[in-house]
Amino acid sequence: MIAGLLTGIAATPWARAALRYAAISLTVVLFLLSIRRSGERVGRLAERLETTEKSNETQRRMLEAAARRPHNRDELGERLRDGEF
Q1: Taking the complete model, does pTM exceed 0.70, yes or no?
Q2: Is the N end or the C end of the chain the one with fewer CB atoms within 10 Å?
Q3: What is the pLDDT of residue 18?
Q4: Residue by residue, what is the 3-state secondary structure of the chain?
């Protein structure tokens, strides 16, 4: 009964045109939502990359400072006398 009714409605030319436009508009809306979601994902990834780069830069500076530190008291005293420290 319902299938016959829907078939009869879909058989008219104006109903087919309406269904066609509805399908096209639904496709466009879904495409736009997909683009929005992928844009949000890219934004989160960019933020994570920026945070990682800042962390790596800080760690690199700490390692460089540790490599330049005086190795014993004598070297520390020499640096303090020379004004390098």
Answers
A1: no
A2: N
A3: 86
A4: CHHHHHHHHHCCHHHHHHHHHHHHHHHHHHHHHHHHHHHHHHHHHHHHHHHHHHHHHHHHHHHHHHHHCCCCHHHHHHHHHHCCC
